[in-house]
DNA sequence: AGCAATCTGCAAAGACCATTGCAATTGCAC
DNA sequence: GTGCAATTGCAATGGTCTTTGCAGATTGCT
């Protein structure tokens, strides 16, 4: 099953992956360590992360020379509910270590190439490259604790209002739509009477998220300040060019928004919206699962889709 | 496993391997091809290889909008005993393609993070990483000639209609908003009477762009087919799981949309919208410059902005 | 329109997977 | 040597996954 690599390649791949995984796994090991057969299971996970990422507990047990129950108990000793929970986390980390290498390789190679497909020729291709750079920057800079803070605030909120005008409305719309899908009362507003009506009922226990890049709409600043004055928690998703907005917010998510053309790019903003909703969905999986199931039922009932995916179990 | 290199050293190993995955699956497709639901399963395997590598037949069935038995039969049509046999081979190839990318990255040893922000811990952080991977894939695969074709069609069109429903509406909204900023008559519509009204006036000389990922709304397919029947040029921005939509379009922009959570990610879709508008702005710089100047004037006149950026040079 | 071939969902059946209660084993302290 | 706590394997249990027979629907050909 683990074939095809030369010895040198295998060592390199597993060594790099193991560096990330080993620190993480060791950090989860109890103070007194793992003894006997459990230690053998742990060593197997470190030495064969690829197989561990997809093998069953029985298969791993066979490889480690232990009983399948020992694999379950090792996972529990490491703080997981059981083998599937540990395996999922291990898989994410293992794949991420591979993917990061791949992205870094592509980035590095593309900087060197000239005239090849994908290299910066047309404005559209340059735009994609700029977005890729922005997303890589966001990935390096973003503090995931801020994401957690915002997600937990939204989860606990009576109601969340997202203020986004102009083209940024797309970010607000996407964030609100998927947050509702995740089971939370989140709405996006832009301008005019819609914003006035929304602000009239904002108060303590609510959350307001202001989304703005480059052009800062007057009503967005007013809304943020007003919400804060009324006791709501205020967060901002913005680029660095909005100190007035940052002043009103308890946390700010800084988003690269520089576009190749005149107007800003929303790609990193949407990625932040996606990350926020993913984090939100993880706050209360049962609630989100129920909301999704309800939405599936509505989709089926209204016959809106060209095809009908089976509802989740 | 990994085919021989071409003369052009500029091509990445991982790109070759990824193309290998598609080439390998297509080569196993029966001579008469796969039809109907099986084709949708195949496209899903191609568009979401990571999830296909680890997901059950039931999960893949749900994503593809088919019955679990159809996944089994698709695997059998491709020459495998059943889903586990196909999955095992697909996973090996997929992981090898990632591993090859990582091997290529060994020249740059700087990527090394342990517990740093951005490492795969929280769901939000994993979402960002997944989007980065998707954008890298898009960057490799996208044919900039397709971008040019669509941009020139929109520039020449009497009117452009963008059809996007659900959360994809954010992509349509962003595309339409910035295309109008660039000086072209582009509007986004979603559903209901708005769509009916827009379709009533679509004809020769117009352009319709359908945006859809994963869940394909019935009215989006109907609109695309109707627009094509009325002589409009039809383009699609979609992931690979929409053969019905692709059938109606003269060009298709394939967008990775696999999200970390249940719902698709719009990040790559927004990046495509951004690239399209950037390309559009370059078709007739004078026209776009004039449109932007007019918009600036409107912004100033209406006093909508908190601050007034200098006009572009 | 009729018919045959193909497709696809349903549901049953069997295999597989993971957890846990229980009991036997092992290691350590006294 | 003994007692006790921790470890570990066995097997039952419940759940999940995959395949396949069957029937209805769909498609293509004449």
TrEMBL record, chains A, B:
Give the residue ranges for region: Disordered: 105-127
Query: What's a single GO MF annotation on this record?
Result: DNA binding
Q: Which Gene3D superfamilies match?
A: Glucose-6-phosphate isomerase like protein, domain 1, Winged helix-like DNA-binding domain superfamily/Winged helix DNA-binding domain
Q: Which UniProt keywords apply?
A: DNA-binding, Transcription, Transcription regulation
InterPro entries in the cross-refs: Homeodomain-like_sf, HTH_RpiR, RpiR-like, RpiR-like_SIS, SIS_dom, SIS_dom_sf, WH-like_DNA-bd_sf
Listed Low complexity bias regions: 114-126
Q: Which residues form the HTH rpiR-type domain?
A: 21-97
> Which positions fall inside the SIS domain?
150-286
Per its UniProt record, what SUPFAM superfamilies does this chain match? Homeodomain-like (SSF46689), SIS domain (SSF53697)
Q: What is this protein called?
A: Transcriptional regulator, RpiR family
